[in-house]
């Protein structure tokens, strides 16, 4: 199946949350890798205090595809008609 051109964007609220999480020594390496991975992505001006809440609200309004590995967030997004993109074994997985 072909889905066409894909553009990766990062909500500002996610970038802000990553900046806070990088201070956690247990998560520093993963967060640093994530920040490096997204550094050239377009920033979507979605702000707020909790990234998960803002992503769910965005899905409710826009029926978007959200990239995440967070199981609880995946569940919430699917409940509101969104789709999930994730990576597993060097493959892109699309769930709806």
TrEMBL record:
Q: Which InterPro entries match?
A: PIN-like_dom_sf, PIN_9
Boundaries of every VapC9 PIN-like domain copy: 3-85
User: What Pfam families has UniProt attached to this entry?
Assistant: PIN_9
Q: What is this protein called?
A: VapC9 PIN-like domain-containing protein
Species of provenance = Candidatus Nitrosarchaeum limnium BG20
